[in-house]
Queue: 4 jobs
Job 1
Amino acid sequence: MVDGGKNEEQTQLGQGHDQASGSVLPEVPGHTHEEGTAEHPVDVASGVASGFIGDPTLDRENGREPPKANAEQTKVKDELKRYMDALLAKSRTVTRMIEQLNEPYNPKPTEGTVKLAEELMSIATPISGAYEQMAGLVSKLEMEDVDHAGIQRRGEAFRRADQDEEPEQVPEPKNPRQRRRKGKGTSETAKLLAGDVGRGSSTARGAIRMAKAVTKDFGFGACNTLRKLSKGSETKSEDAVHRCLQHLRLDVPISTVSIHGDSEFPILRAGDFVKCMDRCGFWDKIFGTPNLERGEQMCYDYWCKYRKLYPNFDLFNTNLPLSRCLPIYIHGDEGQHYKKAAVMVIQWQSVFGRGTSLNNPNIHGNLSEKKYFVNQRGITLATRFVYAVMPKEHYGEDGESLEDVFQHICSDLREAYLSGVTLEDGFDISQDD
């Protein structure tokens, strides 16, 4: 397994800037939010809860007096944000000191420097924890339940997303590696709902309630996903949402291998995942940027740095181009599924990504030509890729079945490493773990 460095606290693979994720829903022109109180009661009959103070114009149209902004709440939120900025600066300073005490910056750490690094780590941990707690408080202040005016604003966003407009003609890139294949029959509303649920900004039950409220006020128009979701059961919300959004799945072929006691055990080969990402133009899931040429440069820079630490690594004894060898991690963990029964989940992920939760939101997506980040930000559905899932009844007694799966993983990745994965334009990319 490739190790990007000895220091697990390092938040960048190179010297670079930070970034953070953006908003899922588009901004609707003419509608702005102000901070206010959440004193409106829950309307059980309509399924609408109070929260955002609402749009004054829409409130007057509906015969309601627009609520007054809560100045104290706004003041507290601004103060929290200033304190978060101070915590972020302190956390970066302490993290930088820890990095300087450890390898490779300090080639020969002594017992004293190791102890000092541990003490600094004990300082950095509560700082990071306080930052996360304050971020949660700010989110609660900004993202409470949506009231009637908020429903109308989001309905307007859905309606704008699905209206039949002539698509903007974007010239096809000359380089086939940059070509993004467009999906067929997928509305923007479905993508917005899937993004909300996938990123955790909305629960499955919340998505169903929102769909019901929007459909009640505006209808579902040409969006079948909104119509189906509005009829979903709130008591079985997870099943309903996944059933409605299953057409957004990545079409990765399911392979079968022979293991102990089962001749057709299903797996998802890493090479098939890469081919699908190439076909759909999802290189940002692997490199943190959609630019494949930039990804090649990341790979080359990474292996050049890795060679300084481990000059005898097997890759450096071959003629494989470093820019076409993708470093990945393999991770296995036992979780729970139906009725809390144990299940082993094995997945792989790229070394590269969009940074960590401490990245600066002011420069989101600003990856320069020489800067890139670790893969610790974003939802796991889009950054970790399942290889195999095995219930414990298959490996609980002797473990031979699990060992067989690991053997197939090693064989599959070795083949990808030596032979490469052929992309649609004939370009080969290898994986190295």
Note: The two ends are 4 Å apart (CA to CA).
Job 2
Amino acid sequence: MKIQHKQSDEIRELDRHSWETNPEYQSRRNFWKVLDEGDPVRVFWTEDNGEVRDLGLMDRDHAKNMIKINAKQCHYEELTPEENPAKKNESELIDKILEEGQNNYLSTDRSTPDDYEKAFQKARRLGLLQAASKNSFELSKEGERAYELGGVENWKKEKEDEKKRHSIHISGGNAVIGNNNSGNSQGRDFLNSQSPTFITSKHPSAIPENNPIKKSDHSIWDKIKYISGIAAALAALIGLLVAIAKAVGYL
């Protein structure tokens, strides 16, 4: 991954083959960056007397080339999660991306390990990253929020809690009837006020396909009431339109 500070043109790129000698290796922020630029493994060398020496961290491709030259004496081992942040789970990687995204532009390239690439793309799908240019990204408002909450898992929990808070919105006023007692009380007070309120609600049984009515159930009186209801609704609508027209000065 390449990291470019938003206030400068500096793009930090580290030597992929000098993990432990690079001066930036000990930096907390760049430790992940160093390992991210390649795919490090721990390399061991077996002496003729059987003694095994730890040669330290080395790029995987470089280690493979050494093994091709001398497979009997050279081998490498995978790093533990503590040694290599690339082994951490996806959420931890996304949290690291959120950290690196503070005042920085982020981008990936061919040298980015698969785990980081997947975490980066997951962060984009979650809406935590947004395009800053053709080839770079920055934290979105949701990304900033996730960072403020301490990580992507806390951000996900907040989103789930929001979904669970179901509310009935009443158009025509500023009240919301919630699922708690205070919300219901506020809703009742609002309904008893003089504020004009329009509530659209249908019980499942009121929907024709859920409660079909047989033709034989319709009497002449039912039809008269139905027609009367339509006429009353039209009259009310016309009255409302006339009132609105007068209010805006058309009549």
Note: Helices lie at 28-36, 60-69, 90-100, 114-125, 141-148, 152-164, 181-191, 220-248.
Job 3
Amino acid sequence: MARFKKVIDQAKVFTIFVYGHTRTLECLRYFTEGKEIISPGVTRFASTFLTLNSIQEKKDQLRKMVVHIRWDSLKDVKSKKGKDATAIILNPTFWKDVKLTLTVFEPLVKVLRLVDGDVKPSMGFIYGELLKAKREIKEAFGNNESRFKEVIAVIGKKMKERLDSPLHLIAYLLNPHYSYSNPSIFDEPTITEGFISCVETFYYHDENKQHQAANIDLKKFQNREGPFNKKFARTFENFDYNPASWWRLHGTEIPALQKMATRILSLTSSSSSCERSWSGFEGVHTKKRNRLTTVHLNKLVYIQFNSELINDKENIKSKKISDVLLSNDTTEAQGFLRENENDCALVVYRDEMEGIGIPWSVIGDAVGVEEQLELRRSARVRQLYEGEEFDSEEE
């Protein structure tokens, strides 16, 4: 989408320039007190969001930096790319677009954190949270269909036949966090069809169990009969609860549906955790030609992988949970390290230089940011790390 691509490309122009020169990087770290503005993520989308968020958090430091004599005295800053980088940071439109981009895509980032996390199975939450994300995105655009329809269309395309299967629909239905707070879910034809399809598959060739689960048990669950109506069953109101554990405790009077619900709600909705076993193999293979026997190798991977699981459980218990979207590998953040691949702000705020009260838009006009950015709009972005070196007498 052009609106978001523009602000992402501008952010990349700035980060590529800063990280491409020793002096500019030193200057950046001086003003940010040693903090980086690039945050590598597990995917390119995560890297983009985390880096934009990092830039937004350091907005004041970055704008003070580019108007400081320390920055202006650097030879590289006087180059065409240096002027572009300075103009981007001083351009108020850039910051408004960053704010809008973060506001729009934050709901999707929440979904990513949910599915990639290890705290609880995510199958019971993925469909409901995607619907919630779509509502929040519409609100971010002021419920103006002409603005949000393109984003919603992309999400719908990605969900179709992937995240709206009968399995996702029944998990959404059997999670009381959603179905009890919105009883109309029980009457939605698409969800009802998905439920029947799953019941027929789960209890294949057992018509008695199918009848029990679909015609008797579901009605008791819907009407909150028996244990479902007890006060301590209201734990479902807390988003952090585990729906599979909830069904094991409160679904004893409807065993047919209980068995099905606990099995489905115990599922994950992402394979990212499975990929960690490969990183275990990579950690053991410290040499290209490793003489370890297969048995010894498997034991080492088993120990290493289970040690990580134990550490994860301890962190969960102590609530020391790191951001699952962050990564130590910069592969997915390369776009912010090297060159490659309308004003719609929803928040009105006073955008002035601290201490003197001069609007940043006035400062931007004084240095000619619009003229500077206009010069580079038609230029194609070149590739770094292909033999081209930076010219800098200071370096």
Note: The chain is about 60% helix and 0% strand.
Job 4
Amino acid sequence: MGYRAIARTTGEQFVLGGLAELDRAVSNESYVDAAAKLANASIAYFADDNDIIHESCEPDSCDSNETQFKGIFIRNLKLLHSVAPNDVYAKVINASANSIWQNDRNAQNQLGVDWAGPVSQVDASTHSSAMDALVAATGI
């Protein structure tokens, strides 16, 4: 898989959104350029061969903070996509959201931690993180 054993999407999640908002505020292309480099590197690092974002703690060793990271990353990737549209960003957002709905949802429509499935760890944190991806995909 394309994701690594020790990395997390922690830092990337906030920086992407911040750089996109800075670009909106002052229209400085260097912010978008920096965000694009970070987004592309993060996608190469955290996405699997099907363009679904993962955390290294999956499927069964994530704590409630770790389960939030990729949802926030996807939300901010969507924000970057709204400032600087990119087919790769759209593909990753849509692939993650589609896989969540098809492979990571239980009979009660609760959403789990491993967006590629099968559904395993399910709690408020995993559900809200997956919802970030579903909401992001509606705007693509």
Note: Residues 10-138 form a domain with the Glycosyltransferase fold (CATH 1.50.10.20).
